[in-house]
Amino acid sequence: MKVAILGCGLMGTSIALAATRNGDEVRGWDPDADVLKRSSERAGFTATGSLGEAVSGTHLVLVCSPIASLAQVAADALAADPNVIVTDIGSVKSPVNERVGALAGPAASERFVGGHPMCGSERSGPDAAAAALLDGSVWVITPSGVTDPTAVTALGEWVSALGAKPMVMDPLVHDRVVAVVSHLPQVVSTALMGLAAREEEGVPETLVLAAGGFRDLTRLAASNPHLWADILRSNVPELKRAIDLLIDDLASLKEELEDAQPSELEDTLAAATKARLSLGARPKVKAGVAVIQVPIPDKPGALAELTAGMSELGVNIEDLQIVHSPEGGRGTVHLTVAASDSEPAITAAEKHGYEAYRIA
User: Fold this and answer.
1) Pairing of strands 165-168, 85-88
2) How far apart are CA 30 and CA 26, in angstroms?
3) pLDDT confidence of residue 326
4) Which of 1, 114, 300, 336 could form a disulfide with 132 if both were Cys (CB 3.0 to 4.6 A apart)?
5) Burial of 353 (C-beta count, 10 Å sphere; 0-12/13-18/19+)
6) Which fold has domain 289-358?
């Protein structure tokens, strides 16, 4: 496949890395020359001087620009080549589909297929990108009423080749679902972090006592404010509905706390526990990479020592996740490396006194 990436931040660069790993011929463009340079150096694609140069002659274009400019960039890509399929990675679909249709016209809109890979990070920029970000993740495909079915099929096959899982969904249903599982967590994380910061003004020790649970719940509060403000504003009706539902659930929990009978509160907690465990804890990866699990102590320098050991043996870390122990004092690191590097990675960890084993 000849693929063009328009917008070379975290997601654009991660997709470019996965595409080059897949053997695709990749071009990239970004209005920020410095971002484009860093992204092309990291992902190994051909940097181009304009949107038209990136798009012309390709098979598939991925628009990875911010949500505010996404529809216009998609329409420009459709106009740049009359044969190319164009998709996007925006986290809101129905408004984008409508806007692209209005800008590009009905004929060109047949080649536009809305999309949303359900992965990401609170970090931003090409330097934080990793091909493994897409491995095993769900990639939602949201065609409009005029989208050519062959374009939907082609995109789904390419997404599968990258190691992600394509899922076709109605745009309106997508926006309602992500309001709960993606946008609402950002709002809750922001609100909780703000509450703790205000409490700290009166009790300076507040954040000193913040352990793993608080850190996990507020991780998203470190996300790019400008980026997320645009995302949240683009899905206002569904997000307001999700916030109202959460307020109702919190009110119910508040009532259960005051109930003399503990069974209702325990039932609510048990139901949430069951639902959470059903998510699964093991990372899902595609062929060609391995996940190494390493328990480490929660102390300064432990992670640096582990990653330095990998570097000493020439092991490239494609992705890294940390799961904090609820008891505190330690955590579990999941390192994604090339399958051929799995044994050297284990050796590097054991050399520094850590137990390590491959889990995927």
Assistant:
1) unpaired
2) 14
3) 47
4) 336
5) exposed
6) Alpha-Beta Plaits (3.30.70)
